[in-house]
Specification:
The structure is a homodimer of 322-residue chains. The first copy, chain A, is built from eleven helices and twelve strands. In chain A, helix 2 runs parallel beside helix 3 and helix 4 crosses helix 5. Strand 1 of chain A pairs antiparallel with strand 2 of chain B, so a sheet runs across the interface.
């Protein structure tokens, strides 16, 4: 099967909202009047971002999900995406599965494939996603202010727990492993919550490299610091909530520096607590307050007794040793 | 050097036209009123699209150039781009050269880097480019009509000639090789010509996989056929114009099926010949009429005596054996 047949068979579908989709030199997008276009791109490489054995359907889902997660963190409504795919060889069953997982998530968010590129090469997937947000209303990393609450959505650390199980550094009961693996391989981007937080959150980021590292980006961009409560960790790890016994330090490491969570971390004024809870309820997304923004730069951690504790969590660095 | 330091050192520059650039979850773009956003993406993989020995400055240029060429083929004005980079290791001199070549071309076209992603992995480069075009004025592949002339810009086949020299299948005088190598490694996207052809050309495509193959896309999308004159080949190959003696069949193969040309192939009504020539002059871009659109589907070739000749040129297929 050649490049053009591959595209026609698996990736060419009529567009419904964009003026022009797959099949010309460019796709054409038309943001609505008063809207800005939010753009994000993520490159996934085998061995670094996914295991070679991963189910292709889950991989198709994840390749788009990690990008939709960036739109969510900006409060943008998904619109369209492009897909670049380097494949070591053409395997029809793999491509069919990949496309199925990709389009199922795309359809769930009304996000259409408008263009792309395919080539032979070491397996790599690059998705660039486009969303709409009213001019001036995007959630940025730079808006956190002293006194704001720090919130996170959903659960943190379970994806990394699954990765550790794959690596053999931890042994998990089958049910716990399957649930954690689902979090690793099939993250659900928090698009609805991101949209609901427009006008409420002062800053937001998606947690892809670990909460401590990603919140650090918000703190630096906003010129502030924060204190987080280590005691919130067991409530944030789904595996711990479901009864799995792990060393407290491991739970904290997973929750604050796990990575691959694709949850939202966001800040909002204390006066907006009811509005945050209401946005969470409307979108059926659990949220947890985990700390407070302060004027003094840096990230501080408090132990269960409310005492400062020295602990450094490096974020996941794609050029690091992790 | 970690991922974030790498981005900050080599790829983070203030944006001047876009509302938000590198450093948040998304970039923000704001097309002007009445404008559509043209989007294109290209994935370049080592060994397939460039040699491992290529000068990084030329590679940075080419990674953006091949995308700007797609904008040119749509008649779109470059606006912004994202860059995803998988690197086997961090080599500062290489990155500095790559960034220099990339930004020199970007600046020449007023096209700013607004976002991206970097990771460790087998060397791969994905650029997604954004341009503006007035709604309804994009040059498409689908507009060719019987009676239209077929035109190409600049020279064809020299990039492939350089590749053949690298492969050792042809031996070239040093000067000819250097000129051809420049065409392979440092193509100049025909952005100005693409803009000048708005309202004049009936269809356009950029020649990346060989003229015969790429024109074939125009013919299929337009529901028409075409006849090309093989005799135009020696005039289109710069190396032949400069006196290099090659077998006629090789010249024809290079010109009609070479690939990596990044010239524009376009169609226009015969009544627009003066307008085409004027657009070419205004943008200092040579153009050559190479054939005619006809109602009968398919691509026909005429020999020097004007007789039909049976010859099949496959386009370059990124999953083929080429």
């Amino acid at each position: 099967m050649g490049e053009f047949e591959l595209i026609a068979r698996f990736f060419e579908r009529p567009v419904r909202r964009s003026p022009l989709g797959v099949g010309d030199d460019c796709a054409l997008l038309q943001p609505a009047l008063g809207m800005q276009l939010a753009v994000s791109t993520d490159l996934l490489v085998e061995g670094r971002h996914f295991l070679s054995t991963v189910d292709p359907q889950r991989l198709g889902h994840k390749a788009l999900a990690v990008n939709l997660s960036d739109l969510a963190a900006c409060g943008a409504q998904p619109l369209a995406f492009t897909l670049s795919l380097a494949l070591p060889h053409v395997e029809e069953a793999w491509l069919a599965g990949f496309a199925q997982g990709l389009f199922a998530l795309a359809d769930a968010h009304g996000c259409e494939l408008v263009g792309g590129d395919t080539t032979r090469g070491p397996l790599a997937i690059n998705v660039t996603v486009f969303g709409e947000v009213p001019a001036g209303q995007a959630l940025l990393r730079s808006g956190a202010r002293p006194g704001d609450d720090v919130w996170v959505s959903g659960s943190l650390g379970d994806a990394r727990l699954a990765l550790e199980a794959f690596r053999g550094t931890v042994s998990l009961p089958q049910e716990v492993f399957e649930a954690a693996r689902q979090r690793l391989e099939r993250p659900e981007p928090r698009v609805a919550l991101g949209l609901a937080l427009r006008g409420i959150a002062s800053a937001a980021i998606d947690v892809s490299d670990g909460l401590a590292g990603d919140l650090g980006h918000v703190l630096r961009r906003s010129g502030v610091g924060a204190t987080l409560a280590l005691a919130s960790a067991p409530q944030l790890l789904a595996a711990a909530r479901s009864g799995l016994q792990l060393a407290p330090q491991m739970v904290e490491q997973l929750v604050f520096a796990g990575g691959d969570d694709y949850e939202l971390a966001f800040t909002a004024p204390a006066s907006a607590r009811d509005a945050v809870q209401s946005a969470a309820q409307r979108t059926a997304t659990p949220v947890t307050q985990v700390g407070r923004i302060e004027a003094a730069p840096g990230l501080r951690l408090l132990d269960a007794a409310g005492q400062p504790i020295a602990r450094s969590f490096g974020g996941f660095d794609h050029f690091g040793a992790s």
